Structures are given as C-alpha cells and as structure tokens.
C-alpha cells in the first residue's frame, strides 16, 4: 500500500493523480499534508503541487466528460466528505479506462458518490448566496462570516463579485479560517483569524460603522413584520433555513449580545 500525501488543494490532488499514473503506483490511499498514523507501515509518496501536471489531468477529463460532469469533479472535491479524494480517484480511473462517457452510470458506486457529493456542494453554495449577511465597518468594508458544511467560497465568489461590484467586501469562512476579499477590481483569497464575538455590541462599536447597529435592528424589525404568525410553518422554515446557519444571520439574532 502507498500513502500519497498532498497539500489538500484541488491542484495538489490532481498532481497526485498524475503521479500515481506516471509512477504506476498500486493500492493507494490519500493523506492531506501529514502522514496518517494508521498507515505506519505503508510506503509514502510525497506530492509537490505541479500546475502543469494538474492541467494535463484536467484536459484528459475534459475530453471524456460533459461540461456538467467535468464541473462536478471540482464540486465533489469541495464537499470535503470523508475520503472524497479516494472516491474521486476511483471515479477518475473508471473514466480513463472506459471508451464511453460513464458519468451517467449510477450503478457504479464512485460515480454515484461523486454525483451526490457534487449535489451537496451545489446546494450549500446556493444557500450561502442567500444567507450571507454583510456588516459595514468604519473603513467602508462590508464583511460577512459564514460556516458552510462544504468549502463553497470558490463557488460563490463570482456571484458576489457581480452583485456587489461597487463596494469592497470580505466573506470569511470561520470553519476553514480563510476568506475571499474583493477590492473593487479583483478577488483574492486571504488567511486571517477573525473575532468570534462578531455579533456583540462591543465588537460592533469597535470596528463597525456608527449606523451599523441601527440598520441591523431595522432589518430584524422588518423580518419580524413580514412574518405572518397564522401562516407559520416551522418544519418548512427549517428545511429552507437550517438552524446551523442562524448564528450568522442578522434576523435570527433578536438582541445584540452585550
């Protein structure tokens, strides 16, 4: 058994796929950045991310898949489901070993699992587009904190760049400790530690625009006023807006923490 160690990025995984074929490695398992103690007696192969190798794998997949099927590989990787890198590799092996397009063969377990993972990421990205709530800082930066189940920032970047092209903004993934920043021209990925108490009055007073707390409370009152108690359907509401998102939704924080 060979433990293939890569840097946890999509390009790193693609580079690993290339080298597995190049070196004819058999019976492989994937590890992100660090060697797994569960495989102490396996051989180790450390992969250095190589964009040329990654592109060659992508070009090969593009020739074998539809546009949607090709995109689903990236979406599935971003799902971060347990062992998705190994499932994707089994899928890639099936793709390259077949003379026909196999993405519709749901009787094949890796094909089905990749489809499900891609769907999960797609659903989560659509939710994030709806659930992002920006706050305005004193230096005119709009920021939002999210904690999605999947790593969806790369997928929602274009949506927010198009929708909020005239203002600087930062969307920060508190679970993965990175964000995407837009400077009115370009978006870049940034690494930072963000204040966990971002909904407190003290925090708002320190960094937010003077009117920010007023507008947050105004939004809460509006949200309450448009909800008709007699038509309340809690089950449907939770289906469309699961509780795990509420901590970062302005309308779900009734009173700012003091």
TrEMBL record:
Annotated InterPro entries: DNA_repair_put, DUF4130
Residue stretches making up the DUF4130 domain: 84-251
Pfam families to which the protein is assigned, alphabetical: DUF4130
Name under which the protein is recorded: DUF4130 domain-containing protein
Organism: Flavobacterium panici
């Amino acid at each position: 058994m060979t433990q293939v160690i890569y840097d946890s990025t999509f390009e790193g995984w693609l580079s690993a796929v290339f080298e597995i074929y190049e070196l004819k490695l058999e019976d492989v398992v994937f590890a992100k950045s660090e060697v797994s103690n569960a495989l102490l007696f396996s051989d180790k192969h450390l992969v250095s991310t190589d964009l040329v190798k990654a592109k060659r794998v992508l070009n090969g997949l593009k020739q074998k898949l539809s546009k949607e099927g090709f995109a689903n590989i990236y979406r599935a990787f971003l799902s971060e489901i347990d062992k998705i890198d190994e499932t994707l590799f089994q899928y890639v092996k099936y793709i390259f070993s077949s003379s026909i397009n196999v993405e519709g063969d749901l009787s094949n377990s890796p094909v089905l699992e990749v489809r499900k993972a891609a769907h999960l990421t797609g659903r989560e990205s659509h939710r994030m587009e709806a659930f992002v709530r920006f706050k305005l800082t004193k230096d005119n930066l709009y920021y939002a904190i999210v904690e999605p189940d999947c790593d969806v920032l790369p997928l929602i970047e274009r949506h927010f760049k198009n929708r909020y092209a005239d203002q600087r903004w930062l969307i920060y993934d508190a679970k993965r400790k990175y964000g995407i920043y837009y400077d009115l021209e370009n978006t870049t990925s940034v690494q930072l530690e963000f204040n966990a108490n971002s909904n407190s009055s003290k925090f708002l007073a320190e960094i937010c625009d003077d009117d920010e707390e007023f507008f947050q409370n105004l939004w809460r009152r509006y949200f309450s006023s448009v909800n008709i108690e007699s038509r309340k359907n809690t089950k449907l509401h939770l289906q469309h807006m699961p509780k795990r998102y509420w901590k970062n939704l302005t309308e779900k924080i009734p009173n700012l923490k003091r």
